[in-house]
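A quick aside before the break. I want you to see a complete sequence-to-structure record at least once, exactly as it would be stored in a machine-readable document. Don't worry about memorizing anything.
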Amino acid sequence: MRIPFGTQSYKSQSLPISAQRLVNMYAERQPPDAKTDVAVFGHPGIVQFATCGSGPVRGMHKMGGVLYVVSGQRLYSVTSGGVATDIGGSISGTAPVSMDDNGSQLVIVNGTNGYLYSVLLGFLLITDTDFNAAETVQFFDQRFYFDWKDTNKFFGSDLLDGTSYNALVFASAEARPDNVKAMVLNKQILLVFGDKTIEAWQDVGAANMPLERIPGVVIERGLAAPKATAKEDNTVYFLGNDRRFYRFDGLTPIGVSTPAIDAEWQNYSSVSDAFCFSYSWAGHKFIIVHFPTPNATWCFDASTGIPHERDSWDMNGRNLGRWRANCHVSCYDKELIGDAFSGAIGHLSASTYTEFGNVVRALVTSPPIHDQDQKRVFISRLQVDIEAGVGITTGQGSDPQWMLRSSKDGGRTYTTLQKWRSAGAIGNYRTRLRWLRFGQARERVFELTTTDPVKRTIIAASGDGYSGT
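That is the input. The structure line, written in tokens, reads:
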């Protein structure tokens, strides 16, 4: 019999229904004539590229072909060779920042102050009395625009000048009495996110404030956190004030999170500090949702619609809970990642299976294996079809191992016995992962993990079994 294995994270609020998890691996649908309908691949590793102070890396942005990084409370420029130069500071706080540029000026906001860097002016604090505290910045039609924190307003800079502001360049999101939380530009429409509604504004060239709300467009859904938005695949994704994840279809929000994920997020103590970013890899569009307070990371794949989870481990083998990537930018022909736990900048690598030298654990959990009439299920053999023979030459991973545990109570508890099997030393392509004699149970869930730094691919799983009284 075929056993679906690790195709998504769908841990139901009632575990006997489904305890499925997919961690640090992503699913990819295959053509009808392939060996399997859905294969599961390991995420790329992270290779060190540069170091910018002690971190955390709070934001990255490319301006004029040059990488700029906010790490700790300092701003750095980084060359294509990974050489970092401290430009200046102090950018208060430790949380992620918002950054945008007009081609010559880079503006940074952190919810309290605004900062600007240009080759001509250097690094400076924005001191204009008409500048207001803001969480997000967006450059649009020759002006920087900002949410006006804790008000129903947003405001803009003077033309092509992030240092100068006019008290008349502002507008109010007045369709509903809620505060503006974020600004996102998409397809020449400025989306003004409030905590209860979203409005769409366009540039009509009016005097003073050139933007005007598109008539009749008021979206009855708010934003959960100021930085919980991401642009990918020609649309905008965001975490709604109902703790559900959405993407825009035109100007209509469509839910993309599953009921199981929604139920889990409802139990988080706070989502007000959540933040998002996105990146592309191997034809997939990944949208990352970080929840700092519950210390969790979720990933939505725009290419397949199949969600999964991410986490990271430190050098001592301790699970950090969340994925260590804090931000992303495409620069210097690399997909660059900023580290949440240091000042390290890394790049994604398909041939690397660690993150800054630290272990990456892959974990997949099967759906419940059971009989529809609730008879006992006897399993004499489980075989997992993987890409075998991918071991490395020496050291950990020269004989890569996968470990199996099983649960008889719907994924609530698992056996303490860990059954290890070799995935084959380098070149042993015909190695099979096989486990025998599981006995009987009313239902069973299998959990498969590996930490060896080798390529991870799960093609399919099958087993021999029968049901009885």
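Two observations worth writing down. DSSP finds one helix and 43 strands in the chain. The chain has a mean pLDDT of 95. We'll return to this after the break.
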